[in-house]
Amino acid sequence: MMKGNKNWVALLMVLLFQWSSAAAEQVIESPQKEVERITRELLATFENNVQQYKKNDTAFIAEVDRQLSPSVAFDSIARGVMGKYSRRAKTGQIEQFSKTFKDSLISFYAKALLQLDDTRLTIEKVDAVPDAVLNDYRSGKARLVPVDMKVKTSSGTVAISYSMVHLDKRWKLRNIIVDGINIGIQFRNQFAEAMNKYNDLQYVVDHWPQIMQGKATKKHVSKQS
Predict the structure, then answer these.
(1) Is 103 within 8 Å of 78 (Cβ atoms)?
(2) 3-state SS assignment for residue 109
(3) What is the pTM of this model?
(4) 68-80: per-residue pLDDT in tens?
(5) How far is CA 92 from the centre of its chain?
């Protein structure tokens, strides 16, 4: 009787494990709809309030921050931008750079939108994510899931590929490729060039917004911190 009970318990544990695994997989659905929703909401906000925001870009930056921050893996992106230098950085430096990077990127993105004048941006197409790609992500064979989109402007069509990662029970943006230009790699190269130039991690972290704009200057080279 005891042996039979053990068999039932073992069977029940297997069934519960299979059910919980299946439930976990069902949560990680395609990020396609999430990407499209975020993009449409942001574009709608921009188009409906563009004249107001042009007079007060601070308000637009705050709105972009509110809409995008929950859906962007800024900490992960920041570590990627720091590259090999994140391994020698102190915890406080990583946290500081993550916040600085987020603030500067949000500000840069918002101001770039405001400079489009009366150009209308519309989503032309969002490609469905193949099941094979999602299965590779669920099984751990892939670190990111690409979502390809085409955005139409007054001057033509722009191809955008969002690299998504599932964190904190939701899909978040990890990188963007615009017309073949990998933005994450661009920022990482910029960070590495700054480190080669200044040889001072704390300085690069402190002055990242100026470095992004090519306005950082320093007369003396200090030792690596």
Answers:
(1) no
(2) helix
(3) 0.76
(4) 899 999 999 999 9
(5) 21
